[in-house]
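Posting this for the archive.
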Amino acid sequence: MTSATDILQRLDQTLLGRKGASPESSYVAALYHKGVDAIARKVGEEALETALAAKDGDRLHIVRETADLWFHTLVMLAHFGLSSRDVLMELARREGISGIEEKAARR
């Protein structure tokens, strides 16, 4: 089975490759072309759909909407020159730290 890290790295590379593509040739290239407002709007839309799926309790729907949310979040990261690795490094930094302590340290 392919590891989650491998999947994320391949997706990061694909998204990076779409940055120079024609908006007519790729959904992701079209999002990049529309800019951060369109990308952020899509992330927000997918977050809401994920929350609504959770409220409904349909496990398959939750997984599918979460996949959409993660995908569009990765598009947003790539737009800013970031990748899944940056987020994974931040999660690793937070590992073992109380959520209350971590949030207080951001103030």
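The mean pLDDT is 94. The first helix runs from residue 4 to 18.
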